[in-house]
Amino acid sequence: MENIFKIADLCLHRTDINEKLLLTHKASESLSNNELSFANQVPVQSIRRVSFPASPALISPRNLPKRKLNSQEGKAAFFHALAHIEFMAVYLAWDIIFRFRDLPQQFYLDWLQVADEEAQHFELLNDHLRHFGLHYGALPAHQGLWDHAVDTSENLLARLAIVPRCMEARGLDVTPVMIDRLAEINDEKGVEILTRIYQDEIGHVQLGSYWFKFFCKIKQLQPELCYHSMLKNYFNGWPKGPFNRETRIMAGFSNKEIDLLEQGIHE
Fold first, then answer.
1. pTM of the prediction?
2. To the nearest 10°, the Cα dihedral for 173, 236, 151, 38?
3. Are 220 and 176 spatial neighbours (Cβ–Cβ below 8 Å)?
4. How is domain 72-265 classified at the CATH fold level?
5. Are residues 213 and 205 in contact, defined by beta-carbon separation less than 8 angstroms?
6. How far apart are CA 166 and CA 256, in angstroms?
7. I want to staple 119 with a disulfide (CB 3.0 to 4.6 A). Which of 23, 24, 105, 170 is the partner?
8. Which residues contact 212 (CB under 8 A, 6 or more apart)?
9. Comparing C-alpha atoms, which of 207, 34, 31, 11 is closest to residue 122?
């Protein structure tokens, strides 16, 4: 019988990429076979002990070179950046499982599904990189996504507000534009991959919305105001618009939350 927290421990504290992917898929398979335990037997470690592969080099987003999609080099850098986002999303899904304990079992089931789908996204993108003669880790990447995990490591509501409902929700705003740009340059495979990711990410943000509201209710907090408060306290600056209102509502946002986001741009 596999233990979900032991697998999370291995995925977060070992650096081998292939092992991490295999463990993630194995956990999902064990769940399907009713061979996954949720016994809280593995101690939580400081988030500062989480380990990452030696490459890519993680640098400040402002130090990443700007490239355009109208060159092979630019397209390669674009897909490498996306692969990094999806790889870090695997970490983020395992970390929310590992770090926050004694919650409803469905919470862990949901984020295991997210971890497995993010691993699949990464594999699709890493395979696509081979068409450009690259592999994940060949270019530098930014460390901003994980910084948000560190900042919210002791507050579950903050983690749900900032990661799925801010960082991941940003993908709902920008991915349709990316898909259109790839279609314009006839990158059919790229369009296929991003369309798959976009569809899955709607579900991931829906899960973030569901659990954010679930725990707000337990704490007797008003979700819209709590979300706004978490952004002000845990997000450096303010989320960028424009916001894809239709898709965000599909993903569990209320009109009031989106109104607050849009108002915040001008504050």
1. 0.95
2. -20
3. no
4. Ferritin (1.20.1260)
5. no
6. 15
7. 24
8. 157, 160, 161, 164, 165, 223, 226, 227
9. 11
Q: Where are the domains of the chain?
A: 72-265
Pairing type for strands 58-59 and 2-3 reads unpaired
Rounded (10°) angle between helices 188-218 and 72-99: 30
The Cα 118–Cα 142 span in angstroms is: 18
Q: What CA–CA distance (Å, rounded) separates 215 from 223?
A: 9
**Angle of helix 255-265 versus helix 223-234 axis, rounded to 10:** 30
Tokens 């949901």 correspond to 110
Per-residue pLDDT 10s for the chain (267 aa) are 899 999 999 999 999 999 999 999 999 999 999 999 999 999 999 999 999 999 998 887 776 777 777 788 889 999 999 999 999 999 999 999 999 999 999 999 999 999 999 999 999 999 999 999 999 999 999 888 899 999 999 999 999 999 999 999 999 999 999 999 999 999 999 999 999 999 999 999 999 999 999 999 999 999 999 999 999 999 877 898 899 999 999 999 999 999 989 987 645
